[in-house]
Amino acid sequence: MKDLIASIWAEDLKVRRSKLLWISAIIFSMIPLGVGFLILVLRSPGLAGHLGIVKTKANLFLAAADWPAYMGLLSQTTAADGILWFAFVTSWVFGREYTDHTVKDLLALPVSRITIVLSKFIILVVWCLLLSALIIISGLITGFAISLPNFSLNLLYSGLGKIMVSAVLAIILITPVAFLASVGKGYLLPLGFTASVFIVIQVTNMLGWAAFFPWAIPVLYITPSEHLGAVSYIILLLTGIAGTILTLAWWQYADQSGS
């Protein structure tokens, strides 16, 4: 336990010293601002007249300029951006030492490789949860600042609950990305995989198979017209477990001498 705490502290120090922490925080805090801007365009004819394309997008994504529509779009945006950015920060946490050629120094520490991997996963979970909380805080401030109608506590609890659940579902899917960052010894493989994931999401959605593709499930969860069965959640959970096992096995048994 002492080794795990020390390893978590070391990983936390790396994250706090990185620019990526602050970049991700800024981006996640701005997501509600973008959704709020679409709301303003939708309910302001004068502004919409000067922003025709934006007005069209606002009409496409929003049924009304109120709290229910705002929370719905915010939830969908959070799920999609969560998949992307959680994968991005995972690639950094697991690929950084390989890119900086310091992995040998990391493995030379008197700490087991399993402990190193667990500490990285713990830091990632905390990081991703904090980003999700930042969206909620920024979302509430933005929603009240633009005076959206039809607010209720039930709507608030439901909307925030969906955001956090979709975030947790997306967090479970970081483990395969961690494995790919480890195998690829850097950022290229996991980021290429993540880009491919969004293409596959579109294809499976068109074919009606999205409920069986793990990375589509967080988005489907917050889509009102979709109903996910137990099989979808089992597939997502098994994907997360498989990614964890593969990552632990790679760090424990793979030859890192050439890293």
From TrEMBL:
User: Which residue positions does the secretion signal occupy?
Assistant: none
Alphabetized, the UniProt keywords read: Membrane, Transmembrane, Transmembrane helix
- Residues crossing the lipid bilayer are 20-42, 69-94, 121-148, 160-181, 188-210, 230-251
Would you tell me the protein name for this molecule? Bacitracin ABC transporter permease
Q: Which organism is it from?
A: Candidatus Desantisbacteria bacterium CG_4_10_14_0_8_um_filter_48_22
